[in-house]
């Protein structure tokens, strides 16, 4: 039966099933400790290395950390930041309703009220005047001023501010302000090593173990090309995509072409080089 | 008859008396002639002859040689020629005698031999041929004399017409050098001998053309030409001669060069293919002779790349290319074809690549570099092996693959297989194996460390042999210490290399399953060319068999059945290399075990004996290794009486290439050691002398290598095959300014309508630093102007537009904001009504590169000027040079740009030839303006030529990388682009102009605004061709350059 859509209030979104996540180092313990002590968290790492998955996993795992034991896990509110993101978009705004108006909370406000994890993905994409909005939330005060309503919200127990950014491809113009970054504990992420990545690919894509091994090997080799024509290494996500295509019967070379080679670069030479590596690893 | 006889004595007496009266010494000749003539002459004829003879005697008087020769000649002629010939002869003699008696004598001596009874060619005719080369000087007379002397020989080998033509050629040469003419004349005899008679006319025809164009080439032609031409058939040579003549008349090329080029090309191709080659050339000749010429010139190169049958396809592809361009190109079809056959253009190279299976590093270098980088992981370079051989570090093979631990070296090309796809795979196999050596730790051997399977025995071995002393500094090099444990260093080195390469090979196969098929193919090819082990001496056969096994070819092994017990343990231990967890330590132990067996086997040739040789059986790896009793087994063979031969290691597989772990470890240690002196030069030399891996390498060359460990890296293009050669003067400059990087750029050949791939090498360096006084003095000199320029620049409005939102007031309303505001207002919360927006020019993002012509011509004085007004100028204080104004302009523009804050780079260029375009950095974009920049400006000096295209391309590649919205390239020059080889021939300006134009067009395509400024008053002629739709300005008042430059920039930056 086809899955029907479900409507959930943003603050009710919880991860009920344990997401698949393999810790690379001690990031789980670090996160837990920071969460416990109300420290905001900055996740740094290249694209597709598992930052979002980690946050999901942690929101599930932190079940039990808060008083609300009835529901599994901490709610998770994710905001993908972009350069037109305004303070109202985060905090909330009045909406017209007939002849009157009604206030509607923005995602950040909802998170503060409901004690959710608010995950601001790619925070550097947001404009700097928006970014400063989170400052009072990100220190000992844990308050959110709502200017339009003349209110100050103190964050509920369980609220945590998590932001992420990828230092790799950000230009100098888009670096995070020091006043912002120095409010967070930073957890650095990198791609998992070959064996770990093979396990991730195996689980996520459902392909054979040998295919997963080879894809992880391919990932490792392609990452050697970073700063030799590739500005970013290949994400685990893309390797998983390739694994899924292969598991579904697509030939490895073709799967790697569509999921990896063409996604990574438009440069003919780089494409050829990656293809040569693919052909060395996978038998035609 | 009686009447005659009655008269005869009287006549004879009269003659003799007369002769006596003149004291003629040679009665014999006269009487002999008389006797001969009286038999055949009638009375009147004899009388007539007597009178002629007496007149001659009287005329020549004491020049008795002449009369003597005359009588001899007459006596011989009477029997073979018509009588009238003898009477005609006398006039010829007088004529020749008039020029020189020697000429006459030489002529008469040869005449009887050359006149034939049926010959209607007169004596006068022959004489006049000889006389053509005689002028008034005595040297030319000598030449004529030589000609007559050789005449009969010449006539034996060729016909009269050819001789006449030869004489014409000689007379042409003699106008410049009679000696050369004489030599050529002598040489021509053997030429005629060598060549078929039907080739003589064409041989001479070509000779005439060559001599007319350049007489000094005559000797080369007469000496070498016949040998080369002898291979031709008559009709072919005739056509080739016509081809050369046509080309020479059309293009005024040096005919000898053309001839030599064609012939050199032809001799490189097998004679069996000459007819085809000629047919193909003539097919092209019908379209255009130049096409035929270039086709022939490049034929050997093409033929080395493509099979014989594909030569017609090669022509076909040229014709296709030509017809595809015909409509769009202004060039003549012949020139297009010729350019194609030069194989410099991308289309030709590609066409050739398609026909040829060969894969060249030149074209795959970048791919292999990336591939190697991906596989090896660490910073790695991939270069052709030649680059390593040239470094003199002990690597000797330019056509095999290897690694020095930092770079993977591969052959210049691979043509093992017939198709390009397989050859590319073979390249990948080479790179993968070398990357394997790096990744799987071939160079990280550690002394006395256990392997994954085999425990280390090094300490035990060291206890038995002398080994290295405790305090020997060379102990730090683990590989050296290991190898030193064995008496027979070559043997252990050979075995270790074999085992370790086998291990790397097995690992590579496991890591890259997709490559296995290709490794198998390359290995099969490798095995194919190896000798049968049964033909080798015994110890060598053992090692060679192991190599066969390591290359996966059990079937080709051969080993005496009687000695199977020797081979089995060796194979058992070799198999450790195939185990997944095996390390280099295991390889070292396995090698040591095999060594122990091999060392005891006498290296004797037993192939002739009664031993049965069979292939060996594969043995799985086993840890229970027992050394066989070699002595007992060998004793059983009864080969004690045979003499041992010197042991030689088998050649390693070509795709494995040279393996030098000891040298690589040494280099690594030297590179990474903090203590520069941890090995003295003597110790290093000692190591090198002991090492198997190098021969004739000195400690000095190793130290030099370590000191200058900055390899030449080409970025935009490929690795250049030769390092650009520099003249002495250039070398001097390089001493001061070290080349930072070499870059390679294409050049546009408008005749071929295509790019010449990687044609120009641009060497980038920092300009040396002079004094900053020039800068300050210039500021002082142009005080007023500087201030004005700064003011103007500060006034320049920013160009780029950005929308400013959240404004209290403004020309536009932001609808989203306005809606939000009104809702908020309704809700009773009211922040300020900031819903206006404005498009504003607030960001200024302009980058400009100034490219200064530093060619020799900028040395030219502008005009006499007041030296006080022009500080820092040339040695002659009254001379202000163009370059000085360029420098002053730089100072001004820097002041202006610093005021406005635009990014800018300042560069100069010069150079000589395509392989050495020098590019000088005065200021880079990302460099702060500081005292160094000031000092560099002082060092801007006129150098050499102007290869604008390459310099523009390099500058635009810099600009392209710089993040700015508006990019401007300003080129400041003093004349037309010109350089050695920047055009087909000297004075060919079109080529340079087209290339420069193309480079500027590329600039535009990259979004860069090019602008040319020249101070050349004649600039109009070519600038309009170069720039057409691009900006340029001729600053006719040179001294106004600084001012104009800033003004132009201001306009450009505002407009763009």
Mean pLDDT of chain A: 87
- Greatest interface by residues involved: A-B, 36 and 26 residues
Strands of chain B, count = 20
Q: Taking Cα atoms only, what radius of gyration of chain B do you get, to the nearest Å?
A: 43 Å
Strand content of chain B: 5-15%
Give me the Rg of chain A, rounded: 21 Å
Give the H and E element order of chain A. Answer: HEHEHEEHEHEEEHEHHHHH
The secondary structure category of chain B is alpha/beta
Tell me, rounded to a whole number, the average pLDDT of chain B: 79
Global morphology of chain A: elongated
Give a quick precis of the structure:
Chain A is an alpha/beta fold and 284 residues long.
How would you describe this structure in keywords?
heterodimer, A: 284 residues, 9 strands, 15% strand, B: 1056 residues, alpha/beta, eight-stranded mixed beta sheet, three-stranded mixed beta sheet, 43 helices, 20 strands, disordered N terminus
Structure commentary:
With 284 residues, chain A is of the alpha/beta class. In chain A, 38% of the residues lie in helices and 15% in strands. Chain A is built from eleven helices and nine strands. Chain A has helices at residues 27-36, 51-61, 87-91, 107-114, 128-131, 178-181, 194-205, 209-223, 236-247, 252-264, 268-281; strands at residues 41-44, 76-80, 92-97, 100-105, 117-121, 143-146, 151-154, 160-165, 185-188. In chain A, helix 8 runs antiparallel to helix 11. Chain A is elongated, with a radius of gyration of 21 Å. In chain B, 54% of the residues lie in helices and 10% in strands. Chain B has an eight-stranded mixed sheet with strand order 8-9-17-16-13-18-19-20, sandwiched between helices. In chain B, helix 1 packs parallel to helix 3 and helix 12 runs parallel beside helix 14. The radius of gyration of chain B is 43 Å and the shape is flat. The N and C termini of chain B lie far apart (117 Å). The model of chain B is unreliable at 1-7, 710-737 and 864-874 (pLDDT under 50). Chains A and B meet through strand 3, strand 4, helix 8 and helix 11 of A and helix 20 and helix 37 of B.
């Amino acid at each position: 039966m086809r899955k029907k859509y479900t409507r959930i209030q943003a603050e009710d979104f919880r991860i009920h099933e344990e997401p698949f996540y393999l810790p690379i180092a001690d990031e789980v313990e670090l996160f837990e400790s920071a969460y416990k002590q109300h420290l905001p968290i900055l996740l740094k790492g290249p694209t597709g290395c598992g930052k979002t998955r980690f946050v999901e996993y942690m929101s599930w795992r932190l079940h039990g950390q808060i008083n609300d034991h009835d529901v599994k896990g901490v709610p998770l509110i994710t905001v993908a930041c972009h350069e037109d993101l305004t303070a109202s978009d985060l905090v909330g705004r009045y909406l017209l309703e007939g002849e009157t108006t009604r206030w509607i909370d923005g995602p950040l406000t909802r998170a503060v009220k409901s004690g959710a994890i608010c995950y601001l993905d790619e925070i550097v994409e947001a404009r700097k005047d928006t970014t400063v909005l989170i400052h009072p939330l990100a220190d000992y005060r844990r308050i959110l001023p709502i200017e339009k309503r003349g209110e100050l919200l103190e964050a509920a127990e369980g609220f945590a501010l998590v932001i992420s950014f990828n230092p790799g491809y950000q230009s100098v113009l888009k670096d995070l302000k020091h006043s912002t970054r120095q409010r967070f504990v930073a957890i650095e992420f990198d791609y998992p090593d070959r064996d770990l990545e093979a396990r991730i690919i195996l689980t996520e894509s459902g392909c054979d173990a040998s295919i997963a091994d080879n894809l992880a090997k391919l990932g490792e080799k392609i990452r050697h090309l970073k700063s030799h024509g590739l500005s970013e290494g290949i994400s685990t996500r893309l390797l998983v995509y390739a694994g899924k295509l292969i598991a579904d019967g697509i030939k490895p070379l073709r799967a790697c072409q569509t999921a990896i080679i063409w996604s990574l670069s438009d440069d003919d030479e780089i494409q050829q080089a990656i293809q040569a590596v693919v052909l060395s690893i996978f038998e035609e | 008859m009686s009447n005659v006889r009655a008269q005869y004595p009287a006549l004879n007496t009269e003659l003799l008396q007369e002769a006596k009266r003149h004291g003629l010494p040679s009665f014999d000749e006269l009487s002999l002639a008389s006797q001969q003539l009286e038999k055949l002459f009638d009375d009147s004829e004899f009388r007539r002859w007597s009178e002629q003879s007496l007149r001659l005697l009287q005329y020549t008087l004491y020049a008795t040689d002449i009369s003597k020769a005359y009588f001899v000649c007459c006596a011989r002629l009477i029997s073979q020629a018509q009588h009238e010939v003898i009477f005609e002869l006398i006039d010829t003699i007088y004529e020749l005698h008039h020029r020189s008696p020697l000429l006459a004598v030489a002529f008469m001596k040869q005449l009887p031999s050359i006149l034939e009874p049926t010959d209607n060619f007169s004596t006068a005719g022959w004489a006049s041929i000889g006389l053509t080369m005689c002028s008034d000087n005595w040297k030319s007379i000598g030449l004529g004399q030589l000609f007559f002397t050789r005449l009969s020989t010449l006539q034996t080998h060729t016909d009269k017409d050819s001789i006449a033509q030869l004489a014409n050629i000689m007379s042409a040469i003699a106008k410049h050098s009679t000696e050369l003419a004489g030599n050529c004349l002598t040489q021509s005899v053997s030429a005629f001998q060598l060549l078929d008679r039907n080739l003589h006319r064409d041989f001479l025809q070509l000779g005439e053309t060559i001599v007319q164009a350049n007489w000094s080439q005559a000797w080369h032609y007469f000496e070498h030409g016949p040998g080369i031409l002898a291979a031709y058939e008559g009709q072919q040579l005739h056509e080739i001669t016509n081809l050369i003549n046509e080309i020479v008349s059309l293009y005024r090329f040096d005919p000898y060069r053309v001839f030599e080029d064609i012939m050199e090309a032809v001799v490189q191709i097998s004679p069996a293919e000459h007819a085809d080659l000629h047919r193909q050339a003539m097919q092209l000749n019908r379209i255009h002779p130049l096409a035929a010429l270039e086709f022939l010139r490049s034929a050997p190169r093409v033929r080395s790349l493509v099979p014989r049958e594909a030569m017609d396809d090669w022509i076909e592809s040229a014709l296709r290319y030509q017809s595809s361009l015909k409509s769009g190109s202004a060039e003549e079809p012949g020139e297009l074809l010729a350019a194609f056959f030069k194989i410099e253009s991308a289309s030709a190279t590609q066409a050739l690549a398609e026909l040829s299976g060969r894969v060249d590093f030149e074209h795959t270098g970048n791919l292999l570099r990336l591939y190697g980088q991906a596989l090896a992981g660490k910073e790695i370079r991939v270069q052709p092996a030649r680059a390593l051989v040239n470094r003199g570090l002990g690597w000797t093979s330019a056509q095999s693959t290897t690694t020095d631990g930092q770079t993977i070296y591969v052959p210049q090309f691979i043509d093992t297989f017939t198709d390009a796809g397989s050859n590319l795979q073979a390249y990948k196999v080479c790179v993968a194996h070398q990357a394997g050596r790096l990744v799987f730790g071939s160079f990280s051997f550690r002394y006395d460390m256990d392997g994954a399977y085999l425990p280390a025995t090094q300490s035990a071995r060291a206890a038995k042999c002398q080994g290295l002393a405790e305090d020997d500094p060379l102990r730090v090099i683990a590989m050296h210490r290991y190898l030193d444990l064995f008496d027979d260093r070559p043997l252990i080195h050979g075995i270790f290399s074999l085992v370790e390469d086998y291990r790397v090979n097995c690992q590579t196969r496991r890591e890259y399953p997709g490559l296995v098929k290709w490794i198998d193919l390359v290995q099969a090819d490798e095995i194919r060319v190896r000798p049968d082990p049964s033909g080798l001496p015994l110890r060598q056969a053992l090692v060679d068999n192991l190599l066969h096994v390591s290359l996966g070819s059990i079937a080709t092994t051969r080993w005496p059945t009687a000695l199977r017990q020797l081979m089995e343990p060796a194979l058992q231990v070799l198999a450790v290399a195939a185990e997944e967890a095996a390390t280099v330590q295991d390889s070292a132990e396995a090698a040591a075990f095999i060594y122990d067996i091999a060392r005891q086997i006498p290296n004797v040739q037993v192939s002739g004996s009664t031993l049965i040789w069979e292939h060996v059986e594969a043995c799985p790896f086993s840890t229970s290794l027992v050394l066989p009793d070699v002595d007992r087994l060998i004793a059983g063979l009864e080969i004690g009486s045979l003499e041992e031969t010197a042991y030689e290691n088998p050649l390693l597989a070509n795709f494995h290439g040279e393996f030098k772990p000891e040298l690589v470890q040494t280099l690594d240690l030297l590179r990474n050691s903090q203590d520069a002196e941890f090995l003295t030069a003597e110790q290093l030399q000692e190591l090198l002398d002991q090492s198997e891996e190098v021969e004739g390498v000195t400690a000095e060359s190793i130290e030099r290598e370590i000191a200058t460990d900055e390899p030449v890296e080409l970025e935009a293009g490929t690795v250049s095959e030769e390092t650009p050669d520099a003249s002495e003067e250039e070398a001097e400059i390089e001493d001061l300014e070290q080349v930072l990087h070499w870059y390679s750029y294409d050049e546009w050949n408008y005749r071929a309508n295509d790019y010449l791939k990687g044609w120009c090498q641009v060497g980038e360096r920092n300009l040396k630093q002079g004094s900053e006084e020039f800068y300050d003095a210039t500021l002082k000199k142009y005080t007023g102007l500087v201030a004005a320029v700064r003011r103007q620049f500060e006034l320049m409005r920013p160009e780029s537009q950005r929308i400013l939102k959240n404004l209290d007031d403004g020309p536009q309303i932001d609808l989203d904001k306005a809606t939000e505001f009104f809702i908020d207002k309704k809700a009773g919360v009211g922040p300020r009504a900031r819903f206006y927006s404005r498009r504003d020019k607030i960001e200024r993002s302009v980058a400009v590169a100034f490219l200064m012509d530093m060619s020799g011509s900028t040395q030219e004085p502008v005009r006499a000027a007041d030296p006080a007004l022009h500080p820092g100028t040339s040695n002659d204080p009254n001379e202000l040079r163009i370059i000085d104004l360029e420098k002053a302009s730089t100072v001004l523009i820097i002041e202006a740009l610093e005021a406005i804050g635009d990014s800018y780079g300042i560069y100069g260029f010069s150079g000589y030839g395509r392989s050495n375009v020098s590019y000088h950095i005065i200021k880079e974009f990302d460099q702060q303006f500081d005292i160094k920049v000031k000092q560099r400006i002082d060092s801007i000096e006129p150098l050499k030529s102007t290869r604008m295209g390459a310099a523009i391309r390099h500058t635009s590649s810099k600009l392209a990388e710089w993040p700015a919205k508006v990019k401007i390239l300003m080129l400041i020059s003093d004349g037309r682009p010109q350089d050695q080889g920047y055009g087909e021939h000297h004075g060919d300006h079109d080529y340079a102009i087209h290339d420069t134009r193309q480079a500027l067009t590329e600039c535009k395509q990259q979004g860069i605004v090019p602008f040319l400024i020249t101070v050349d008053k004649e600039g109009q002629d070519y600038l309009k061709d170069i720039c057409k739709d691009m900006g340029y300005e001729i600053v006719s008042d040179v001294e106004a350059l600084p001012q104009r430059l800033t003004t132009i920039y201001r306009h450009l930056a505002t407009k763009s």
